[in-house]
Each structure stands twice: as structure tokens, then as C-alpha cells.
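We both want to read C-alpha cells more fluently, so let's practise on a single case. Would you write everything just below, so we can both look at the same thing?
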Amino acid sequence: MQERQWITTRRGELDALAEQLTKQLQEVQVERDELAIAERVLNRLAEQAQADAEAVAPVSAKVAWRAVLLIPHRSDAADEDALPGDYRKILAIVREADGPVQVRFVGGHVMLLTTWCDGACPAEGACQERIRVSAESA
């Protein structure tokens, strides 16, 4: 008779343990589901951030046979020290001028020479400029 009592007691203990483990398993499954959702959200945010970064990435081109940025890198700095050297030179030239400045004038001071096209003009006689690096800056 004592053995049956032990079996009944042990079965009760195991049922309580199974109920506790089932509850813990449910909590773990809920937390795993929440983590999976959080991971998907972070992946989407990372993809959006990467797409945004690629959308505003500066595009380079060749001007005067050297690579330049069509859109310079942007920053939150408000002073001109954040600008590239060529931009600072151009600002200094414009500040020193008494009034409006032509591109040719600025180009000559930053070591660029401008020449007019030789007869290959588009409609209405407007000429295109070609820019080449002067021998001094090469």
C-alpha cells in the first residue's frame, strides 16, 4: 500500500512540474516570437537606412580630367572649414571680388583654363565651355 501512495505522490509532483514547465515553455515561446518580430523590424530599418544612404550618396564625375563630386558630402557643420579645399578657395575668390564674379575669373584663379568650343555649338549659337586643367596645376 505504501508503494501506491508513493506513486500517487510522485505522479502529483510530476504533474505540478509538467504544468510549471508548460507555463515556462509558453513564456519562452512568446519571448522568442517577440524577438523574431524585433529582428525583422531591425532588418527593415537597416535596409531603409542603407537605401537612404545610397540615395544621397554623392555621384562623382570627371571635370577637367579629374574626378569631382557632383553633390558634395553633407554635414551638420555650419562653418566653411567643413568644405573641401577647392570650395574654400572659390569662396575666398568671391569674397575678395568687388561685385559679381564670372566663372572664367574664378576658374583662372583656381588654376583652371576655360576655352570656347571651336564651332560645335548647339542651337541658337550658344557655345559650350570645355574646362581643362592648366599646366601649372597638373
